[in-house]
């Protein structure tokens, strides 16, 4: 059992590092020119923030118990962990509903969904999540367990109060978080894939039979591929944990073998908070292009900028003015030169220069 717990700890910490890095890169790419003005960018940004919060809070909970067995913030971490997990799941569910509506009525959906409305929806969804789990302030408390000599406190844990209906609440929380959202995502993804397949078949038919082609939005294609892939990954990673939780609630079979399965499904449950970055890379060509452009802009240019400055030859700029005509400056770009002579011939100032690389003679 200790070995399985260590695997779980290492896996969640690695997922936290990878997931937070990927979500931060996704946030940067979403604010580039291609994705910035779309309502879906607000949804994906909210999803990235919620996923980062879930991963960081889970890692804080694990690391805190390893180095500080006695803490006082366990209930706060537990509260915000459930809040951001519910927010992440319902954003994915709303993404599936929004893409499904776009497939059925692409002309009407822009009037219903805009960037401001999407931002307000994410804020309202966050407030609803806070209200749903607000009863934790009443039904949760910290318990401290002393050692065998009853002299020092060895560890602390956040638990429900004795008169709280824990089984009913666990079923209700699982229903709100997973049992209700997974069927919605599955149905929406099936409808979207079917409609996209029919649209691709119609487009191929029009390309073969006529000169005119079906003009489908490239940006919406890219966004639909990204969001549908994220929703499919969510269904694949969350379904095993949901099924196993329902099985344990019905059978009450809490054996060591079921405990191992529970840890494995819990690790898989955290995958959908960290793997959206990979899903976007493999499903969207424009996302890959923006990612490569980001690395070229902020990494390669910063690395080679100093070397480029050191290898560029320095130049001097000289100006010539005529005293008889209108004073019009003539700008000369020359390599590094040395001025050694100044003559005045017929009212024109001549600057004599000598190029140190020229072995044939002097240049005037």
Which terms summarize this structure?
364 residues; mainly alpha; Rhopdopsin 7-helix transmembrane proteins; two-stranded antiparallel ribbon; two-stranded antiparallel sheet; 13 helices; 67% helix; disordered C terminus; G-protein coupled receptor; transmembrane helix; transducer; GPCR_Rhodpsn
What is this entry, summarized?
The protein is mostly helical and 364 residues long.
Main-sheet strand order equals 1-2
What's the CATH topology name of the largest domain?
Answer: Rhopdopsin 7-helix transmembrane proteins
- Amount of beta strand: 5-15%
User: Helix content range of the residues, please?
Assistant: 55-70%
Number of domains: 2
Largest sheet: 2 strands, antiparallel
* Poorly predicted runs: 210-216, 316-321, 327-358, 360-364
Report the order of strands and helices: HHHHHHEEHHHHHHHEEEE
SS elements, strand count: 6
CATH class of the largest domain: Mainly Alpha
Shape: globular
Number of helices: 13
Report the CATH superfamily of the largest domain. Rhodopsin 7-helix transmembrane proteins
> For the terminal residues, how far apart are their CA atoms?
88 Å
Structural class: mainly alpha
User: If you compute it from the alpha carbons, what radius of gyration comes out, rounded to the nearest whole angstrom?
Assistant: 32 Å
CATH architecture of the largest domain: Up-down Bundle
Give the mean pLDDT.
76
């Amino acid at each position: 059992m200790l070995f399985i717990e260590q695997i779980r700890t290492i896996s969640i910490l690695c997922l936290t590092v990878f997931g937070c890095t990927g979500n931060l890169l996704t946030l940067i790419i979403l604010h580039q020119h291609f994705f910035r003005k779309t309502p879906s960018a607000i949804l994906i940004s909210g999803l990235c923030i919620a996923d980062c919060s879930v991963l960081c809070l889970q890692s804080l909970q694990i690391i805190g118990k390893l180095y500080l067995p006695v803490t006082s913030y366990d209930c706060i971490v537990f509260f915000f962990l459930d809040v951001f997990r519910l927010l992440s799941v319902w954003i994915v569910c709303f993404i599936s509903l929004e893409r499904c509506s776009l497939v059925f009525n692409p002309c009407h959906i822009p009037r219903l969904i805009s960037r401001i409305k999407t931002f307000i929806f994410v804020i309202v969804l966050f407030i609803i999540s806070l209200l749903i789990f607000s009863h934790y302030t009443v039904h949760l408390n910290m318990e401290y367990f002393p050692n065998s000599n009853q002299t020092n406190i060895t560890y602390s844990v956040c638990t429900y109060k004795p008169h709280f209906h824990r089984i009913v609440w666990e079923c209700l929380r699982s229903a709100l978080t997973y049992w209700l959202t997974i069927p919605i995502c599955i149905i929406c993804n099936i409808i979207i894939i079917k409609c996209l397949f029919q649209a691709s078949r119609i487009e191929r038919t029009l390309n073969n039979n006529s000169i005119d082609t079906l003009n489908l939005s490239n940006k919406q294609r890219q966004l639909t591929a990204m969001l549908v892939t994220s929703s499919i990954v969510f269904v694949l990673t969350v379904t095993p944990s949901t099924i196993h939780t329902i099985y344990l609630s019905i059978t009450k079979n809490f054996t060591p073998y079921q405990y191992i399965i529970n840890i494995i499904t819990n690790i898989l449950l955290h995958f959908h908070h960290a793997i959206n970055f990979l899903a976007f890379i493999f499903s969207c060509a424009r996302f890959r292009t923006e990612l490569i452009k980001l690395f070229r802009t902020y990494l390669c240019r910063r690395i080679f900028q100093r070397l480029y400055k050191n290898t560029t030859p320095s130049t001097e700029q000289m100006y010539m003015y005529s005293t008889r005509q209108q004073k019009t400056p003539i700008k000369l770009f020359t390599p590094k030169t040395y001025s050694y002579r100044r003559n005045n011939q017929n009212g024109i100032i001549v600057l004599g220069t000598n190029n140190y690389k020229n072995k044939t003679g002097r240049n005037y």
